[in-house]
Automatic annotation (TrEMBL):
One GO biological process term: phospholipid biosynthetic process
Lineage: Bacteria, Bacillati, Actinomycetota, Actinomycetes, Kitasatosporales
UniProt protein name: Glycerol dehydrogenase
Bound cofactor: record note: Binds 1 zinc ion per subunit.
Cofactor: Zn(2+)
C-alpha cells in the first residue's frame, strides 16, 4: 500500500492580526499549548523591556529571561536558565536573534516554542532552523518548527521600517530561488518538491504583486503570512531550497566579504534576486521585481547600500562558494569577473530605463 498522503510539519496556531498579543495567553490555553500559564519568555535586554511592561499583565504566570544576543553561547545559557522551571512552553518575543536563541533553547530543554516576532525582517520566524553566531562564524542548527506563531501587526508597525522592508526582499527572493530549483531540476535532475515550491512561490508572488506598502495593515498581513509560509515550505522540503538560491548566495557573500558593511538580509537578498532574474534572461521579471523593491524603499543597485560595482562583481564571483552543492544560475553560468561586470552594466541600464 503506497503512502497516499503526508503530514506537513506546521505550527498548531498561526495568529496574525492587529492586537494578537493581547490574546496570547488565552490562545495558548485554548489550544492546550499552555494550560497552567507557566511560560518561559525570552526577550531582548534592550527593546524587550518596553514590550515586557506592556505584555506582562496578560501573562501572569510567565518568567522573563533577558537574552544578551544571538550567539550559540547566549542560547545555551538561556536553555540552562530555563531548565530549573517547570514550563509548558518557551515564548520567543523579539527580533530574529531572540527567536533563534529561543528556538535553540526550547529544543534543548524539550519544550515547544511559541514564536512572537516583533519585526518581519526575514522568513526565519517559522522555519525549522536557528541561525546563531558561533566561534567559527555563523551556524545553522536544525530545530523543531515553532508550535505557534503569533504576529501582532500593531507591534510590527512600531518596528523600524528598515526591518519590515527587509522581509519584503526575503519573500520576493523566493521567486528567484524557485527558478534556481527548476534550473537544477532541468540540468542535474535534482528533485523538486512541488508542494514546497508552490507554497514558497505563491508567498513571493503575493508580496510582489500586492499594491500596498508597509504602512498598510493589509499589506503587512500578506507579508507576515508570506514569511510564515516560506518557513513552512522549508519544513516541507526539509531544507532551505524553496527560499534560497543565487539570491541568498549573493547575500551570504556580502556578509562574508564585507562583514562590517553588510546591509540587511532582505535588502541583499532582494537585490540578489533582481540581479539573478536578469542573469537567467528573465529581463522583464527582473525589471518588475526591481521596480517593486524600489517602491518599497529597498535597494536594487549595490551603490544604494554603499558598494561599488567592482565590489559587487567580487560578491557575485564569490557567491557560489558560500553554499557548496547548491546549483543556481551562478554555478550554471560560471561567470568570470569581466563577464559579470558586462552583464551588471546591462542590468543597471535595464532597470534604470
Ligand atoms: Zn532569507
Amino acid at each position: 500500500m503506497p503512502v497516499l498522503t503526508r503530514l506537513i510539519p506546521s505550527p498548531v496556531v498561526v495568529d496574525i492580526r492587529p492586537g494578537a498579543l493581547d490574546d496570547l495567553a488565552s490562545v495558548l490555553s485554548d489550544e492546550r499549548i499552555s494550560h497552567s500559564g507557566k511560560l518561559a519568555v525570552a526577550v531582548s535586554s534592550g527593546s524587550g523591556a518596553k514590550l515586557r511592561e506592556r505584555i506582562a499583565p496578560a501573562l501572569p504566570g510567565a518568567t522573563w529571561y533577558e537574552v544578551g544576543g544571538g550567539t550559540l553561547d547566549d542560547a545555551i545559557r538561556l536553555a540552562g536558565a530555563m531548565r530549573a522551571g517547570h514550563y509548558d512552553a518557551v515564548v520567543g518575543l523579539g527580533g530574529g536573534k531572540i527567536i533563534d536563541c529561543a528556538k535553540f533553547a526550547a529544543a534543548r530543554v524539550g519544550l515547544p516554542l511559541v514564536a512572537v516576532p516583533t519585526n518581519l525582517a526575514h522568513d526565519g520566524l517559522c522555519s525549522p532552523v536557528a541561525t546563531l553566531d558561533n566561534d567559527a562564524g555563523r551556524g545553522s542548527y536544525g530545530v523543531p518548527n515553532p508550535i505557534a506563531v503569533v504576529i501582532d501587526l500593531d507591534v510590527i508597525r512600531e518596528a523600524p521600517a528598515r526591518f519590515v522592508r527587509s522581509g519584503i526582499g526575503d519573500a520576493v527572493s523566493n521567486i528567484s530561488a524557485i527558478a534556481d530549483w527548476e534550473l537544477a531540476n532541468r540540468v542535474n535532475g535534482e528533485k523538486i518538491d512541488g508542494l514546497a515550491a508552490a507554497v514558497a512561490r505563491q508567498a513571493g508572488e503575493a508580496v510582489l504583486r500586492h499594491p500596498g506598502g508597509i504602512g498598510d495593515n493589509d499589506f503587512l498581513q500578506v507579508l507576515a503570512e508570506a514569511l510564515v509560509l516560506s518557513g513552512i515550505a522549508m519544513s516541507v522540503s526539509g531544507d532551505s531550497r524553496p527560499s534560497s538560491g543565487a539570491c541568498h548566495e549573493i547575500n551570504h557573500a556580502f556578509d562574508l566579504l564585507f562583514p562590517q558593511r553588510a546591509a540587511s538580509h532582505g535588502e541583499q537578498c532582494g537585490l540578489g534576486a533582481a540581479f539573478a532574474m536578469f542573469l537567467r534572461g528573465a529581463h522583464e521579471e527582473s525589471a518588475y521585481m526591481a521596480e517593486v523593491l524600489h517602491r518599497h524603499g529597498l535597494p536594487v543597485l549595490p551603490e544604494e547600500i554603499g558598494f561599488t560595482v567592482d565590489e559587487f562583481v567580487q560578491v557575485v564571483e564569490f557567491a557560489p562558494q558560500t553554499r557548496p552543492g547548491r546549483y543556481t544560475i551562478l554555478e550554471h553560468l560560471d561567470l568570470k569577473p569581466n563577464q559579470i561586470k558586462d552583464i551588471y552594466s546591462d542590468y543597471a541600464k535595464a532597470i534604470g530605463s
